[in-house]
Amino acid sequence: MPLEGEYEPSPDAWVRDQVERYEATDGREAGTLGGTGRPVVIFTTRGNRSGKLRKTPLMRVEHDGAHLMVASKGGAPSHPVWYHNLRADPTALMVQDGADRFDATARELEGDERAEWWERAVAAFPPYAEYQRNTDRRIPVLLAERRTGSGTDAEEQS
């Protein structure tokens, strides 16, 4: 079932603007992290307190159809809000990678699987390694996996 509800745009203008352009153009515009040329994906979660939909552009780290969500918050001492939202409800997640939109379930990675995906994350966006050095917390990494039967309307009609 698609993630539905009232959308509350980010209080940060650059996030609001990027999400709006990305969605309007299926990622053909605003599809990279400002100034880096590195691609992003839009993740939609449900606020665990407000119940409103929140949209966050994160670095695109994809492998075999799964997308990684790195809760780096630039190496800040606290986790980003979207991380807490997914801990409260890991199924309240939609991913938009270009024109491909699908419902997903998030799970936090540990052990060897985490290490393997962390390497992919740092390869996609090297500053992640610095962010980890700059914080005392272990940066969580979550894997967003497509739910069966989830996809764009065009995919579901074919």
TrEMBL record:
GO cellular component terms attached to this protein's record: plasma membrane
InterPro entries (UniProt xref): F420H2_quin_Rdtase, Split_barrel_FMN-bd
Catalytic activity, reaction form: oxidized coenzyme F420-(gamma-L-Glu)(n) + a quinol + H(+) = reduced coenzyme F420-(gamma-L-Glu)(n) + a quinone
PANTHER family, alphabetized: DEAZAFLAVIN-DEPENDENT NITROREDUCTASE (PTHR39428:SF3), F420H(2)-DEPENDENT QUINONE REDUCTASE RV1261C (PTHR39428)
Family, as annotated: Belongs to the F420H(2)-dependent quinone reductase family.
NCBIfam families, A to Z: hi_GC_TIGR00026
This protein's name: AclJ
Any Pfam family the entry gives: F420H2_quin_red
GO terms of molecular function: coenzyme F420 binding; oxidoreductase activity
